[in-house]
C-alpha cells in the first residue's frame, strides 16, 4: 500500500493531502516541527511526529513531499530530504491539466484546475495553486509559488523562490527575477529584477 509523508501540517500541507488522496495515495501521515503542540491529528490525517522523526522513518514511505508554503523554508527542507535519500514525489490533483509536452520537477504541488501548457518547464518544489495558468514555453525555476488564479502568458520566466500572488497577470515573455514578489491582482507588463516587490496595474516595482 502506497504511504505518503507530508512535512508541514498547516493549511498548505492539508491541501496537498487532499490532492494526494484524490490522486490515489491511500495512506498519508503528517510531520511538523510544532508537534506535539499542534495535537496528534489533522483531520482526517494523523500528525505523527516532527522532522527528526520523519528523517528516521524515511524508509517507510513510498513518497515524501514538503507541505510548507514559505519558499525559502520549503527549499531548505526539500534539499535536506533529498540529501537524506527521501523518495521525493510531486502531487498533482486529478483535475489539473499538465501537457504531456511540459516538464514537472520533483516535489511540486499542483492543485485543482491548474493548467500547464506545452513546452513549459517547472522546476523542483514549485507550488502551482488552485486554478492558475502557466502558458506555453514558460520557465518556472525551483521553489516558486504561483498563487490561485494567477495567469502567466507564454514564455514567462520566474526566477527561483519568487512568489506570484492571487489573481496576478504576467504578460508574455516577461522575466521575473529571483526572490521577488508579485502582489495579488497585479498586472506585470515589464520585467521585474531580483528581490523586488511589484504591485499595481500596471505593476510598479520597489526593492524588498
Helix content: 10-25%
> Structural class, from secondary structure content?
alpha/beta
Give me the count of strands: 24
Instruction: Return residue spans where pLDDT drops below 50 for at least 5 consecutive residues.
Output: none
Rg over alpha carbons:
17 Å
Question: Please, how many domains?
Answer: 2
CATH topology (level 3) name of the largest domain: UDP N-Acetylglucosamine Acyltransferase, domain 1
CATH 4th-level superfamily of the largest domain: Hexapeptide repeat proteins
Span of the ends, CA to CA: 46 Å
Strand order of the largest sheet: 6-9-12-15-18-21-23-24
| Average pLDDT for all residues | 96
Assembly annotation: single chain
- The number of helical runs is 3
Examine the secondary-structure arrangement and name the CATH architecture of the largest domain.
3 Solenoid
The portion of residues forming beta strands comes to: 25-35%
Shape: globular
Q: What is the succession of H and E elements?
A: EHEEEHEHEEEEEEEEEEEEEEEEEEE
The major beta sheet can be summarized as: 8 strands, mixed
CATH class wording of the largest domain:
Mainly Beta
Summarize the structure.
The chain is an alpha/beta fold and 208 residues long.
Amino acid at each position: 500500500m502506497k504511504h505518503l509523508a507530508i512535512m508541514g501540517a498547516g493549511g498548505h500541507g492539508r491541501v496537498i493531502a487532499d490532492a494526494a488522496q484524490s490522486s490515489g495515495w491511500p495512506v498519508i501521515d503528517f510531520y511538523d516541527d510544532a508537534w506535539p503542540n499542534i495535537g496528534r491529528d489533522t483531520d482526517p490525517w494523523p500528525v505523527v511526529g516532527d522532522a527528526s522523526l520523519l528523517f528516521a522513518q524515511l524508509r517507510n514511505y513510498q513518497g515524501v513531499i514538503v507541505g510548507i508554503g514559505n519558499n525559502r523554508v520549503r527549499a531548505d527542507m526539500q534539499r535536506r530530504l533529498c540529501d537524506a535519500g527521501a523518495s521525493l514525489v510531486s502531487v498533482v490533483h486529478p483535475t489539473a491539466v499538465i501537457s504531456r509536452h511540459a516538464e514537472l520537477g520533483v516535489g511540486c504541488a499542483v492543485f485543482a484546475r491548474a493548467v500547464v501548457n506545452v513546452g513549459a518547464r517547472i522546476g523542483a518544489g514549485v507550488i502551482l495553486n488552485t486554478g492558475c495558468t502557466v502558458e506555453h514555453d514558460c520557465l518556472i525555476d525551483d521553489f516558486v509559488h504561483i498563487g490561485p488564479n494567477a495567469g502567466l502568458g507564454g514564455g514567462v520566466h520566474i526566477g527561483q523562490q519568487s512568489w506570484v500572488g492571487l489573481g496576478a497577470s504576467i504578460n508574455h515573455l516577461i522575466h521575473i527575477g529571483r526572490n521577488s514578489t508579485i502582489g495579488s491582482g497585479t498586472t506585470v507588463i515589464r520585467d521585474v529584477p531580483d528581490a523586488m516587490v511589484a504591485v499595481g496595474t500596471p505593476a510598479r516595482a520597489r526593492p524588498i
